Amino acid sequence: MLRLVIIFLFVSLQVFAENTNTTVSSTVVTDKAPPTANAPSVVVNNSDVCKTGTSAGVQTQILGIASAITVTDENCERIKLARSLYAAGMKVASVSLLCQDARVWDAMAMAGTSCPYMSAIGAEAEAGWKENMDMIPEGSLIASKWNKEINEIKVKEGVESDGAKLAKFIIAAMVMHSGIVTFFP
Q: Which of 13, 75, 117, 120 has the smallest number of CB atoms closer than 10 Å to its CB?
């Protein structure tokens, strides 16, 4: 009887185990980040070079971009060239080169020493600059002041400005287009 009970228990446990459904679910997670975009380094070894290296990199989940450039410092180049000209004994050329910067041009004018103009210096240079205002470096404060003074003198003398000439031209064109004959003084 004991044998029978043991066999019964053994069989019932097997039947119970066979009827149990177990589902095993697993998710594989990997901690692997995408590679990063490393910006390349730009090395300028010589300290006598007027260039600066700049680099940048951007990385997304799919795409990474990196780039590098060198930027030229024009003011640094101008100073080095002026030093070379001065060392070669070409002092006027050195000052002329520096005067291509509006700040230097203004400083020279405020000091009462005009920048050289087409090999002229002093009062002759100042007269040359006033006759050719378009050659003054852009951004000059003195040039805008001179321009205002010249326009005021023209108004006092009765010289028409370009805007007044344009207005007369447009009126004359409209009159001719409409067929009306008018005389302009």
A: 13
